[in-house]
Write a structure and sequence with these properties.
single chain; about 230 residues; Tetracycline Repressor, domain 2; 2 domains; about 0% strand; elongated; disordered C terminus
Length: about 230
């Protein structure tokens, strides 16, 4: 039997069905991101997500099962910028972090990548952290999110040490601590959301701070970044 014909003889477009299912899933996640960041996790109902996405609540149950799963998947979309399965470290916009000729360029490339991620996802990171305070089902998600950020920081430090020494007296573990601190969504929230820094100012500061703290010494021209 041909692959595109079902037993009743009707044409069966599997690729079309998969594409529509993916579009529906993305619509649900985009709606969830919008509502979670606007009104918080607790105040957002499955019905409101369904209404925002233009689907039935039953479709949400069939596609993503429940609200904690939606939050987890929505965070991944916000971080990556899409629903592709490619890991963040393998994205094109992370390539210079692993390939730039100098450690300083790798750190500044990482700062630019963090800026992209935080522009999309710092609000969602905070939604997860705040939601975990009142919903025990999300404690593991918040802990895993922190672990993934630290794992990312460690991989950046390893990239740096492949081409340079760290600052005098700084171990890889302590360097990871520093990168993990500086790439925190809370820092982005304070500087960009609360203090009103532009994305460019945040990235410039982050790159300079990482170079100074991880590699040591003064960063020339730092006052000219703002």
């Amino acid at each position: 039997m041909p692959a595109n014909v079902n037993p009743a003889g009707r044409n069966y477009d599997a690729s079309g069905r998969l594409a529509r299912a993916r579009q529906t899933r993305r619509a649900i996640l985009d709606a969830a991101i919008s509502l979670f960041t606007a009104q918080g996790y607790g105040a957002t109902t499955l019905q409101s997500i369904a209404d925002e996405a233009g689907v039935a609540v039953q479709t949400i149950y069939a596609t993503l099962e429940n609200k904690p799963t939606i939050l987890s998947e929505a965070l991944d979309v916000a971080i990556s910028g899409d629903d592709e399965s490619t890991a963040v470290n393998e994205r094109d916009w992370m390539s210079e972090v692993w390939s730039a000729e100098t450690a300083a360029r790798r750190l500044r490339a990482y700062a630019a990548a963090v800026g992209q991620i935080m522009d999309r996802a710092s609000d969602m990171f905070m939604v997860v952290t705040n939601a975990a305070l009142t919903d025990a089902r999300l404690t593991d998600l918040d802990a895993e999110t922190q672990r993934r950020r630290r794992h990312g920081a460690a991989s950046v430090v390893r990239s740096v040490t492949a081409v340079s020494d760290l600052a005098t007296g700084l171990s890889e573990e302590r360097a990871t601590d520093l990168v993990w601190l500086y790439n925190s969504p809370a820092v982005h929230q304070q500087l960009v959301r609360a203090a009103g820094w532009s994305s460019d100012e945040y990235v410039a500061w982050l790159g300079a701070a990482l170079v100074r703290e991880v590699l040591g010494g003064e960063v020339s021209g730092i006052s000219e970044l703002f």
